[in-house]
Amino acid sequence: MSLDNTQSIVEDSPITSELIQKYEKLFTLTPEKMRSIVDAFVETLKRGLEQYGQVVPMIPAFVFGWPTGEETGDYLALDLGGTNLRVCLVTLSGGGKFDIKQKKYRLTEEQKQMEGSLLFDFCADSLSAFLESAQAEGTIKAGAELPMGFTFSYPCQQDRIDHGILIRWTKGFGNPNVEGFDVTQLFADSLKKHNVPVSLTALVNDTTGALIASHYTNPRTRIGVILGTGCNAAYAERVGNIPKMKDLGIPDDTLMSINCEWGAFDSFEHKHLPRTKYDEIIDLTSNKPHEQAFEKCISGRYLGEIFRLVMKELIDEGVIFLGKDTSKLNEEYCFDTAYLSTMESDMTPELLTIVSVFSQHYKIETTLAERQFFKALANLIGTRSARLASCGMAAIVKKLDILDEGCSIGIDGSLYDMYPGFKERIHEGLTDIFGEKGKNVVTHHAEDGSGLGSAIIAAMTKTRKDKGFFTNL
Ligand code: ADP
Ligand code: MG
Question: CA-based angle 267:163:51, to the nearest 5?
């Protein structure tokens, strides 16, 4: 933990160097530990390809091959993420070029729990309002029925591209009457109720969207990753390497996108990840105990909560905020992961941005020693997240056996995009795992990946629709 010039302050503060070392020890991942996680991860990926119903389900996404870059036309994309709903109008102009117009709506905690049909009504309503204003501006012709990709970032069992049954909610969602149902049907019902003129062409996971969108603009892309509210990855696998699909008669050399749903790695068993007691509290108090073990250590929904739980412990032990009213920190999930970014970015000697995080949002005055500790703690939690994410990426690289040739990984989501130094920490993790060869794997921001990818997949689907059961084969 880098407390640099803080030693003198630490001396007359309850924040001792032993205390700091304790957290350092809890959150630091050694290269050896990372390599053992990668090995277990590779086995887990293989198991998911072999059999249905595995913890990491390796879901065939029924997106075949890569885009040519020459897909063209206007498409709608509706992206139901874990924090935001985005409605996009995507114009593909060929040559890997595109234009996106989008509107973003923040989802409330209430919307994440209300009756499922109401959630889809909200999606249909937002789409309808977006279409009306696009028609008023003249960007869409009135009466035109545009093809739409629906980016739905939760594990769905698919047997074709425009259909998918929700296996389980993740990322804190719990809307009744959606698990076990076909979400495209639920959404289509809402669209019909609201008279929204679109044809739902493709159901796409955000990771598959990021994979395909990244490949459209950068053909060296082999893996798509999401680091936002949740954490997940997709990559393209030869059908011949997916034993559980062997009876479908798809040629072995066909490439199929696989939505790994890797957030579930180490769920239930809890054998491989170095979980702290804060991770356990988050898990057991979540609406899905024991599930999504990997995601809960990494993604934007949880990092702020891990930080808050450490603060709560230190408040109870009388180490921080002595004599202060800390009641505003009592509410679960009240500490946004974005504050960890803010704290890590604060380069002022007095850490004045951190002063305002606590004074403005929680009405707490902080000491300099506390602020220095918080900055270092944010660094530990953020670094563990990035290094664990790099373990998952390394596992796919190893599974594909592409370390020597190298590849690019397209990553979308606010954590990757906005957390200072996150990308560098991932790359450092890859080098710790693979040595110098780790540098053959690079990452890039899959900008608007979820929405753009969904539109491209809708386009791929449309052009291949006449080719039989596998809608976009
Ligand atoms: P979604 O998951 O809905 O697609 P995003 O990719 O924007 O949306 O991710 C939202 C998550 O990113 C939230 O958990 C939020 O806490 C986190 N986040 C937002 N801004 C930042 C930031 N500046 N630094 C780190 N995390 C952030
Ligand atoms: Mg997203």
Answer: 40
Specify the long-range contacts of residues 285-291, CB closer than 8 Å, at least 24 apart: 285/332, 286/172, 287/169, 287/172, 287/174, 288/168, 288/169, 288/170, 291/168, 291/170, 291/264, 291/267
DSSP 108: P
Whether residue 3 has pLDDT greater than 70: no
- Model confidence band, residue 11 (pLDDT cutoffs 50, 70, 90): low
For the CA atoms of 270, 275, 280, 286, what is the dihedral angle to 10 degrees? Answer: -80
User: From ligand 1's centre to the CA of 84, what distance in Å?
Assistant: 9
Whether 202 contacts 454, CB under 8 Å: yes
What residue has token string 């960890």?
A: 340
CA distance 389 to 155: 19
CATH 3.40.50.1970 fits 60-218+447-463, yes or no: no
Ligand 1 site residues (CB inside 6 A) read 81-84, 228-229, 300-301, 336-338, 341, 413-415, 418-419
Task: Find all residues with CB under 8 Å of 161, minimum gap 6, and list them.
Answer: 61, 62, 63, 201, 202, 203, 457, 461, 471, 472
Instruction: Tell me the CA–centroid distance for residue 121 and ligand 2, in Å.
Output: 20
Compute the CA torsion angle 40, 46, 51, 55 (nearest 10 deg): 40
Ligand nearest to the CA of 204: 2
Show the tokens assigned to 72.
């063209």
Over residues 156-206, the pLDDT tens digits come to: 999 999 999 999 999 999 999 999 999 999 999 999 999 998 989 999 999
Q: Is 439 within 8 Å of 429 (Cβ atoms)? A: no
SS3 content of the chain, % helix, strand, coil (to 5): 45, 20, 35
Amino acid symbol at 46: K
The residue among 299, 293, 173 whose CA lies nearest residue 226 is 299
